[in-house]
Amino acid sequence: MSFSTLVLLGAGLVFAGRPPQDAQKPTTPANPSQKDSSKAPSARDSRTADNDAEYKIGPQDVLRIDVWKEPDISRIVPVRPDGKISLPLLNDVQAAGLTAMQLAEVISEGFKKFINNPQVTVSVSEINSRRVYVTGEVTRPGSMPLLPNMTVLQALSTSGGFTQFARIKNIYVLRVIDGKQEKLPFNYKQVSSGQKSEQNYMLKPGDVIVVP
Question: Are strands 62-67 and 131-136 parallel, antiparallel or unpaired?
């Protein structure tokens, strides 16, 4: 047998003993962190949905009112400063202080006089009512969105610092309590040094921080 024949036979044996290319590739295990979009929302998604459902509508928020099969009545409306919205057939409807679901029930009940079995959906398009204000001797006075658990110290830290005329020991917060405006003292020097922590109030919508 010639040398070239032996070489060909050896190459054939090596090729025959080699597993197919696809078999050499290890099977990649499924990534447990990947989520199937068809599954139910996670616990975090549920909490977010719950928080949205519990949100109380406030003045200056913008609402989307959808009435099924009634495009002439469906519309986007702002919440007026008095907390009411204007709708066809119903005129003024109190919106502030209610959740979107509660308001949908109120509107649906009102439309029953004019529409057979009205199906109403309310959603909050813009949240403008949850704001606080910083005024006086700060670099950037104005309004800002009220973040969860926001304190006076946190709000002041986003106002660009104090001017040279600021009396940081005499800062106060104006807050409406039971229809009456109250003045809450805030001594920046003491609070920022770890003292008077009870003065670092958790802010509420509409609070005004005054830096004299």
Answer: unpaired
Q: E strands within the chain?
A: 62-67, 75-78, 84-87, 91-94, 120-126, 131-136, 142-145, 171-177, 180-186, 208-211
What residues have CB less than 8 Å from 54, skipping those under 6 apart? 99
pLDDT of residue 126: 86
Q: Are 104 and 95 in contact (CB under 8 A)?
A: no
- Digit-coded pLDDT (tens) for 116-159: 999 999 999 988 888 999 999 999 999 998 888 899 999 999 99
Domains and CATH numbers, the chain: 44-126 (3.30.1950.10), 131-211 (3.10.560.10)
Residue 151 is given by DSSP the state: B
Residue-wise pLDDT for 102-116, tens only, equals: 999 999 999 999 999
Cα 136 from Cα 58, distance rounded (Å): 26
